[in-house]
Amino acid sequence: GSFSVSPDKQIYYCFGCHAGGGVVNFIMQIEGLDFPDAVRFLAKRAGMEVPEDEAYHSQYQKQERLWALCKDAARFFRQQLFSPVGKPAQAYIQKRALSMDTVKRFGLGFSPDAWAALTDTMKEKGYRLDELIDAGLSIRGKNGGVYDRFRNRLMFPIIDIRGNVIGFGGRVMDDSTPKYLNSPDTPVFKKSRNLFALNFAKAAKDTALILAEGYMDVVALHQAGFVNAVATLGTSLTAEQARMISQYAEEVIVAYDADGAGQKATSRAIHIFGEIGLKVRVLKVKDAKDPDEFIKNLGKEEFQRRIDNAIGSFMFEISVIRSQYNMQDPESKTGFYNAIAKKLLEFPEKLERDNYTEAVAREYMIPETDLKNLVNSMGGLIGVTTR
C-alpha cells in the first residue's frame, strides 16, 4: 500500500498525498479536527483526562447536549415517518422511488403537521426549551410560546464527518413555501463549513466528488451507486466548502440543475474552485431538470457516460457565452467569435492556448486557422505575445 504507519516510532506517512507526522496530525487529517480537538479525541480514546479551563468545558458540554438532542430529534422524525402520521411522506418517498435501504442509510424522517410535536416530545426527554431553540429545532413565538421549526416536512438529517447529527433540511409535503427549509447556524451547525453526505462521500474510492444542488439529488445519486456525491446546505458554495472538498478529492464534477440559476451557480462554483486550484469539470444535465430526474429517465449508465464526458470549466464558460449570441445573425456570430478569442487570450501559455483554440474550433465548427488568426490579431492589439 501507499500508506505506512510505524507504531513503534508513533509516526505515519502517506505516499499518495505526502501527508505525514505524528499521531495528532493523523487524527486531524482523518477526523477533520483542529489540533486541540484532535488531542482531546485521542485523550478520550486513551481514557486520559485533558485538563480544561471552565469556559471550554461548559462550551463542550453544551455541544455534546446539542449533538445528543439532534440525534434524538432524528430518531423522533424517523419514528413519525413509519407511523400512520407519516403517510404523506411515505407516499412521497415511493413517488421518488427511494428504496428502504436508502431511507435507512440517510436516516430520513418526517416532522408531523402539528405545532409542537417535536418540542413536547423532547421536553419529556429532559431537554430544556433554550436547548431546543439553540439547536434550531424550536422557535419562540411573539407571544412567548415555543413551537417546532419543522412541520409537515420530509426530514433529511445533516451529519458531519465525525458522524454527529448537527442539523436538518426539510422538504415540505404541500404547496407551502419555502419548499426546502434548513436549520439555522447553531453552536454545532455551520452551513458554510459542512456538506450534505460528505460523511459518506469521503469514504468513496473515487478521486472525484460530484457536487449537486440539493438533498434529493444527492440521495438519488447515492442510491444509483454514485456515492461520491455531496451538496451544499441551502446556500451557494463557500470557499470553506471548496477547501473541504479539496481535502477529499483531486477534482470536482459540478452537476447543478439545467436551468439558468443552475448555470449561474456553476459559473460561480468554477470561480471558487479555481481560486484554490482544484480541477473542475461540468456535467451536462440537459434532457432533465436535475440529476435525480436524469437518472430516473435515462438511467445510471447514461449518467456515468455524462460523468466521463464532463467538460472542463473553460469549455463550459464558452458554452455560456455561446448561449448569449444568435448564430443565425452574422453580426451576432462575429460577436461570439470575438468573445471567444478574447477568452482564449486569458491563457498565458501559447501551447495551452493553441490546444484550447483547436478544441473550441472543433466544438463550434469554426475553421481553426480563422480562429487562430483572430486570436493572434486580437492579441497583437492588446499586447499579448501570441507568436
Describe the structure concisely.
The chain is an alpha+beta fold and 387 residues long. The protein is built from 16 helices and 14 strands. The strands form 4 sheets. Strands 11-10-12-13-14 form a 5-stranded mixed sheet. A 4-stranded antiparallel sheet has the order 4-7-8-9, covered by helices on one side. It has a 3-stranded antiparallel sheet with strand order 1-2-3.
Can you tell me about this structure?
This protein is α+β, with helices and mostly antiparallel strands. It has 16 helices and 14 strands. Strands 11-10-12-13-14 form a five-stranded mixed β-sheet. Strands 4-7-8-9 form a four-stranded antiparallel β-sheet, covered by helices on one side. The chain has a three-stranded antiparallel β-sheet with strand order 1-2-3. α11 links the parallel β12 and β13. α9 packs across α12 and α10 packs across α11. The longest helix is centred in the N-terminal third of the chain and has 28 residues. It is globular. The two termini are 47 Å apart. The model has no long low-confidence stretch (mean pLDDT 90).
